[in-house]
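User: Please predict the structure of the protein below. I'd like the answer in structure-token form so I can feed it into my own downstream comparison script.

Assistant: Understood. Taking the following sequence of 364 residues as input:
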Amino acid sequence: MSVSALPAPQQEDRGLFDGVGVLDDLLMFDAPAFPDPARPGNTLVSLQAFVSLRSIDIGAATAAVTAILSSFGIDVGDGLNTLQERIKLIAAVGLPGKNFSFMVPGCSQPAKISGTSGTDLGMALQTVSLGRCINTKELNSYAVPGFLDGRKFSASVFSSPDSGFGVISDIDDTVKISNVLDTVALIKSTLLEEPKPVPGMPELYTSLAKSLNKPQFVYVTGSPFQLYPFLNKFLDTTYPNAKGPIFTQNLTVVNPVEALQFLMNGNTQAYKVSMVDRLKAMYPKKTWLAIGDSTQKDPEVYGESFRKHGASISCSWIRRVEGANNTDERFAAAFAGVPTNRFRIFSDADIPGLAKINVAGGEC
């Protein structure tokens, strides 16, 4: 799926049954909003949504995933309800060509998604105008399907000016314990267990929300969008002072085996760099603190992003995870060309002290 921070062309209205109806389901993602460069004073929002059939055959997906877990020696036990909640979007049947409108109280005009994608099986990612909006960090957006359907779908819109600081953050093993390096532990933490934060990180992010003067937090994860509800709930409840949109990968396969293989694939560098590029296009003058860990490719992502965007990536913090490649050679290669005072490799014992670093004043 292509992504862009620029407005997408609007398609013509379709037929009567191309709206989201009573037989359909709609997932709205929390979205970043940013100034409209063509119309000063107006706001654009990069809205993502997924439309699928409301009826899901969760039984077949459950049987397939349970068999896979069994092959790893994992017994679902009394975690069946949790498993089914986490995998239900893997079983969902996406619907292309669906249109819907959404309202954002506090903004002067409604917006419309024109046609979910056929290539991306029901996903839509479009940049649309909200007109003029009140000056607040978080707005509520909602969509009502229409005639004879009393449901209401909602998500947050996080608005930020093209100035000041933002925080780009990974999720797995950066803010949430996922055990990426241990396949069995990763599957359990993702599909069966209650999520747990990395100790000290909620307090650190609360501190950053104050010291960086309400920065735009954006979470960039290699996880597929099917895990978005799970991740969004975790961040909302565990990091309430650092809420922000989550950029996930678009996984269009419907085979549970392929979905689990995707989950365990750590090759996320190109995707994450493209998401940093996307943020740079939205907020060309904003300065970013980038936070990640050493399990996968965060050092390489942030190093490459610095070489592309320079001082826009003011500082990178990498959590040193035991068992990962934490050699000096690896970090030297990842941050080649990046001044040594522009990145920091930290251990868990260092986390409380990170809050004392004056990032807004230029320290790293």
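That's the full token string. The chain is about 25% helix and 25% strand.
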